[in-house]
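Onboarding guide, step 5: your first structure request.
Type a short instruction followed by the sequence, for example:

Predict the 3D structure of this protein.
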Amino acid sequence: MSEVHKTLIIGSGPAGYTAAIYAARANLNPVLLKGMQPGGQLTITNDVENYPGFPDGVMGPEMMESFEKQAARFETVIHADTATKVDLSARPFTVETNLGKTLQAETLIISTGASARYLGLENETKLQGRGVSACATCDGFFFRDKDVCLVGGGDTACEEAVYMTHHAAKVHMLVRRDVFRASKIMQDRVFANPKIEVQWNTEVRDVLGVDEGRVTGLLLENNKTGETFEQKTDGLFLAMGHTPNTELFVDWLDVDANQYLITAPDSTATKVPGVFACGDCQDSVYRQAVTAAGTGCMAAIEAERFLEAQS
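The system replies with structure tokens like these:
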């Protein structure tokens, strides 16, 4: 533990790797911990067609491999570890990992991302990227003129259902209660859209299509009558929200009601000087790879300026 690093980055999605690239080019000699899901949510995304610079699209895992290679090219030290404990009470900050390492750093960049909430079904996992998606904005384009189902009843679900009507021929909203949790204005938009059909008291019991390698239908249950039935569909979208991976930091940093890290306006700075947060762990609005990368750039620049001000 004798060496104190200038910058330590926790997380390896677009935000983390971009932060590493900028920090390395600023001679901050960054160390990066990959975390539990190296590469972030893009590693379970098949086709990425909305990231600038890839006119023919790119596979999510391939993109994140390129991000990692670029960070490594500038001599970022990359560890496969996951952070398990942090001490932000004083600089240098201390981070312990699952592989027994203890690291210290003058600045800390948190890019731990967020995890979409899934139903927990076995076939749902098997068909991720093959008709099962938790991001309508990312994947809606692939369902042009298709029939899709979307699970959720809040503002996010209503917003994504309306968005999906720009692509899909029909959107079935599967709501487990008999009312929406969404705001009145979002409900009105759903009810006014002829492409959306709301199926109340409906829960997904299984995802069909594993043998075909893509979603072909769902096994649904009406939780009021107990009736189960199969419904054909080309896609299943989960819009039940995201859980930011911030549990390590809630005792040290401010979070909002949904546990997203709070940063200063137009900044990635947290309430602890020298600690910065970027990507989906602090962005509950956009949650896109390109915006995550942008905030990763911001975090590295802010870390560099912070260290300059300390010297």
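Each response can be followed by summary notes, for example: The longest strand covers residues 102-110.
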